[in-house]
Design a protein that fits this description.
By secondary structure, this protein is of the alpha/beta class. It is built from 22 helices and 21 strands. Strands 13-14-16-17-18-19-20-21 form an eight-stranded mixed barrel. It has a five-stranded antiparallel beta sheet with strand order 2-1-5-4-3. A hairpin with a 5-residue loop joins strand 1 and strand 2. The structure holds ligand C2E and magnesium ion (MG) (2 copies). The site of ligand C2E has 22 residues, from strand 14, helix 12 and strand 18.
Length: about 625
């Protein structure tokens, strides 16, 4: 065996060793620059006359030094950011053409014009550079051997470069994949902001640094007011653009050291790493509110204006760990939202007490069904001209062991917030149908349903099985929904409503006229009945505008062929006016208050019909009541 051959075999073995070592390092998750540094060092041990360098080509086609252990940093910095091209040294050209480039004499080669002085000053005379290619054949970097003599690379040196370039490709691709996975795991894809996971990971570091320098850190929780409405009325495309624009504005109001994240659909969190005292922080928050409040000019000339609600907590003042501080900023935000006014609130002990009370209230609501504290009352709905009872609306009552009677307007939102609405809604539906099963078959029963119930996958199924279980004909059940349903999740809502309709169940639009876009809601689904909100009826006798709205809704109902029910009819004057306008049905204290069903025994046939049972005609108001 000749000496040359034995040296060649030795090199092959050494290259195998290098390969093994580098692959182990890559698999262990070492930083890319460290792995490349090691590879260069090992390559130089095998090729002692070469000086090794590895560059990465970034996504914009620029060279980024990764490792060159035997060259000074200043040399690498001189190359950093250079765009690849046909005349950009050995490496820039190799990357540009995608094949190895050999420069035998840097001094005279025109491709080295821009880098010649730097190279010559270090005694670098020749350079063999090979492109590093990904498995998709894309150039992701270069691996080069410099020589101190103007000479060609030996075939062995070329072999080493080839081998190393292949290892570099594996390392760079692995690093890029890791980066992509990290971005997916830690970055919100819509806005490019951090997500909760990244925030939670970085937070301890931020607090540790702040503690060391006695700095204050603030958590600013931002929520866009009425984002659901924007989503429902302007569509997803505009809403997504808006979220991106909001994220961009948030970033511009922050310092580089601040961390910005998107936590929910329209919820953002800013961690101000050096928030200063309360006055400085308040000024920063005011600037943020001002920036976010300016109009957004989005694609297709769309202009959107938004208001935001902001909750703020501070380290170390309000807490010392991530979860506690986020919960406190969130509690302050909830306070702003519940108060019904936009703006911002700093976390305080009072807010804490209120948040705790709210949670306790939600716990109580969640327990109310099993604790047997819920019951139904029924309010008659009558023919407007004859006042004959056509059916009853079931209304929920909660007798809280401490607070006593709690109105549904207060506890239904709490039940929605804590998820108890599912059980509560099922209870109402079943109870109402069990009652209706005992009534004469011409009487309807109306049940209110929350958006949260309707968009639940099982809702249509629940209604179907409750009807089957109680034997009530589907046409006798009417579900009352409000427009907020369509803000909530309009696609799912429509699908469910269609399923319900297919079952033969009626659907009424409740509180008509109070929503954000009543007319378009009417168009989106063929409601069986329109219920004019009480507020219009209340004012219609004394206020011309309210009267005009009522008469318009009547006209709308006639044109669409949908019966109209007037809610909250309390006086004879209101009834007379409604009769004159051709209103189909009425509901209100004048006809009957919401009461336990026993109070309407004569109407439901549970007791013999008495003289005062309303059958219409111009009776005195005292006997108009359906209560007997
Ligand atoms: P709604 O469905 O519009 O119910 C009518 C409300 O107006 C009832 O209030 C009723 O007591 C009241 N009302 C009826 N006639 C008159 C009147 O002549 N004058 C006045 N001033 N008020 C009248 P209630 O029972 O407090 O219910 C309020 C709202 O709570 C309901 O509005 C409904 O949206 C919701 N709700 C009630 N029960 C349930 C339920 O079982 N499930 C769901 N999801 N929501 C319910
Ligand atoms: Mg209702
Ligand atoms: Mg109503």
């Amino acid at each position: 065996m000749s000496g040359r051959k034995s040296r060649g075999r030795n090199v092959e073995d050494r290259l195998k060793d290098i390969q093994h070592e580098i692959l182990v390092r890559i698999a262990s998750g070492d930083a890319l620059a460290d792995v490349m540094h090691l590879l260069c060092t090992r390559a130089q041990e095998v090729a002692p006359n070469a000086i090794c360098s590895v560059l990465r080509v970034d996504s914009s086609g620029r060279l980024r030094p990764l490792a060159a252990p035997s060259l000074p940093d200043a040399y690498s910095q001189g190359i950093d950011g250079a765009a690849i091209g046909p005349m950009v040294g050995s490496c820039g050209s190799a990357a540009y053409f995608g094949h190895p480039v050999e420069v035998v004499n840097i001094k005279s080669d025109p491709r080295w014009a821009d880098f010649r002085d730097a190279a010559l000053s270090l005694g670098l005379k020749a350079c063999w550079s090979s492109p590093i290619k990904s498995h998709q054949d894309r150039v992701v970097g270069t691996f080069a051997f410099y020589f101190r003599r103007a000479r060609r690379a030996s075939s062995l040196e070329k072999r080493i470069v080839d081998h190393c370039a292949h290892l570099c490709a594996i390392a760079i691709e692995h690093w890029a994949t890791q980066g992509r996975m990290r971005r997916l795991a830690y970055v919100d894809p819509l806005t490019g902001l951090a997500n909760r996971a990244l925030l939670a990971e970085k937070f301890p570091e931020i607090l540790a640094r702040a503690s060391e320098c006695s700095k204050e850190v603030a958590l600013i929780y931002v929520d866009i007011n009425g984002f659901r409405v924007i989503n429902a009325t302007r569509g997803h495309k505009i809403s997504d653009q808006l979220l991106r624009a909001v994220a961009a504005r948030i970033r511009t109001t922050c310092d580089d050291a601040d961390l910005t994240a998107r936590l929910g659909a329209d919820e953002f969190l800013i961690v101000k790493t050096n928030s200063g005292d309360e006055a400085a922080l308040a000024a920063a928050v005011a600037a943020l509110e001002k920036a976010l409040g300016k109009p957004y000019r989005l694609e297709g000339e769309a202009v959107v204006r938004i208001g935001v609600s902001i909750g703020i907590s501070r380290f170390p003042h309000d807490g010392t760990d991530f979860d506690a501080l986020v919960a406190k900023a969130d509690a302050a935000l909830a306070e702003v939202k519940l108060s019904g006014r936009a703006g911002h609130a700093f976390y305080t002990a009072k807010i804490d007490a209120e948040a705790r009370a709210r949670r306790a209230f939600e716990r109580d609501v969640a327990m109310a069904v099993v604790a047997g504290q819920l019951s139904l009352v029924f309010q008659p709905q009558a023919d407007a001209s004859t006042c004959t009872v056509k059916g009853f609306e079931a209304l929920l009552r909660w007798n809280h062991p401490i607070h006593g009677y709690v109105p549904p307007n207060k506890f239904i939102p709490a039940a929605e917030a804590c998820g108890a609405i599912g059980d509560i809604g099922a209870f109402v539906l079943l109870q109402a149908l069990e009652q209706a099963a005992k009534w004469p078959s011409h009487l309807r029963v109306a049940v209110n349903v929350s958006p949260a119930q309707i968009v639940h996958a099982d809702f249509a199924h629940l209604v179907e099985s409750a009807l089957m279980g109680t034997g009530v004909d589907p046409s006798r059940l009417e579900l009352e929904v409000t427009e907020s349903l369509f803000i909530y999740d309009s696609e799912t809502a429509l699908r469910t409503l269609q399923k319900l309709k297919a079952l033969g169940v009626g659907v009424a639009m409740d509180d008509f006229g109070t929503g954000y876009s009543s007319l378009s809601t009417l168009r989106s689904f063929p409601f069986d009945r329109i219920k004019i909100d009480r507020s219009f009826i209340e004012d219609m006798v004394s206020n011309k505008d309210a009267a005009a709205i009522v008469s318009t809704i009547m006209g709308l109902g006639r044109a669409l062929g949908r019966p109209v029910v007037a809610e909250g009819v309390e006086t004879e004057a209101q009834l007379a006016e409604l009769q004159q306008q051709g209103c189909n049905e009425v509901q209100g204290y004048l006809i009957g208050k919401p009461l336990p069903i026993e109070a309407y025994a004569k109407v439901t046939g549970a007791a013999p019909a008495g003289e005062t049972r309303i059958t219409g005609g111009r009776q005195p108001s005292s006997s108009r009541s359906a209560v007997v």
